[in-house]
Amino acid sequence: MTQQTIYHIGTPGTPWGATEKAQWLAEQTKKRSYFDDVVSKIETFKSDFDVDQYGELAYDSGTYPLFVVRTKNWDDSKPTVLVTGGVHGYETSGVHGALRFIETKAKDYQPHFNVVVAPCLSPWGYETINRWNPAAIDPNRSFVADSPAGECAHIMNYVAGLGVDILAHIDLHETTDTDNSEFRPAKAAMDGKVNTNWNIPDGFYLVGNSEKPYPEFQKAVLDSVEEVTHIADADDENKLIGEDIAQRGVILLPTAKMGLCISFSKAEYATTTEVYPDSPKATPEQCIQAQVAAVTGGLDFLK
Description:
The structure is a single chain. This protein has helices at 18-26, 34-43, 92-104, 123-128, 150-162, 178-191, 215-225, 255-258, 261-264, 284-302, and strands at residues 49-59, 62-71, 80-85, 114-118, 166-174, 205-209, 239-240, 243-244, 250-253, 269-275. It is α/β, with parallel strands linked by helices. It has one domain (18-302): Zn peptidases (Aminopeptidase, 3-Layer(aba) Sandwich). The strands form 2 sheets. The protein has an 8-stranded mixed β-sheet with strand order 1-2-4-3-5-10-6-9, sandwiched between helices. A two-stranded antiparallel sheet has the order 7-8.
């Protein structure tokens, strides 16, 4: 595949400084509304769930309140499960899959778990269809102590404040064609490097924690998803996005070392979903349903 490797901002081989990051930020525009699409939906959940504001993000373009939705009648004797979406705001089905899970399935699991759902960790990214936050920081590499990203720090503090162990954490993502047309070239330019990985798997796959792989848990998630959409095949080198296949549809990464979202909760069972909405074999609605199926498949396994 031939790709454009020279991004229009910066000098090839030289990492971005403040000037280049400011130029990038100045080019970003609002394309949809977090308040219309997400906050208004969360408001409708208040009769059936507890809704907590766990912080807010104040940027030059506006202020964004951050919300989690929890099942009612919290019971410390039950295990707690966490679902996160919109860590990368541009990944639409992650946000709407989390909302759909709350709307249609979350109450079914209340007898078994305390369920905590954070539907959109990166509202500015949602509105501007961006992977990064306004400081050009990737939230899904920033779940670390003293995180430089408010998107990460706020949810980390909230979950720590619950004072419970997290049994399972499912983080909802997607991979889109804009990864190649925009975000991979932009990251390479910012880092002063040349991108060499252009692989986008056609289908759904999972990223698990290499320290706690739990292959049967991952399989349960994929079995549920496969009722909705197809699972991504490995490439000719038996890899997905340049990583070795651990089992069908699953790659494993050192998630804590990389600062990935599923690491901060220290959940025993953890996985990151990746669905491909640009596939000719899937629709945006199927991708939302696949995210819901991933959550229910994992929770059904753990009931």
